[in-house]
Design brief:
By secondary structure, the protein is α+β, with helices and mostly antiparallel strands. The chain has one domain. It has three helices and six strands; from the N terminus they run H-H-E-E-E-E-E-E-H. It starts with 7 loop residues before the first helix and ends in a 6-residue tail after the last helix.
Length: about 120
């Protein structure tokens, strides 16, 4: 599980896409709604119907990395699915890479078919 007191979010490099930039481009994908948790700062994608949360916060522990974790509703068991690195590329390319991985995970865990 990630350290919710991580301070890298405030010190992140401007070379990498931020949670706010992602949400300004897309805030809903299928049944999933994106939001930043006000207590932890985690970018979460929540599917209320299936009670699935995907946590995918850019630069959470390291600049240029995004850990993708899944909670299937209990809040007690969170699985790290993968961590991607965005070392090269424009913010637009980083956004596309982030979105491709996120949608793949959503499809696997949430069985979504209608990407908005």
């Amino acid at each position: 599980m990630r350290d919710i007191n991580n301070q890298n979010q405030s010190n992140m490099s401007k070379n990498y896409i931020s949670s706010e930039e992602i949400l300004s481009e897309v805030s809903e994908i299928g049944n999933f709604k994106g939001y930043i948790d006000s207590m932890s700062g985690v970018l979460e994608w929540w599917d209320e119907k299936n009670d699935i949360t995907i946590m995918a916060t850019p630069n959470w522990e390291n600049d240029g990395e995004v850990p993708f974790d899944v909670d299937r509703g209990s809040g007690m068991e969170i699985w790290n699915v993968c961590t991607i690195k965005m070392i090269d590329g424009t913010k637009s390319e980083q956004f596309t890479h982030y979105l491709n991985v996120l949608i793949m995970i959503m499809n696997h865990y949430g069985n979504i078919n209608d990407n908005k």
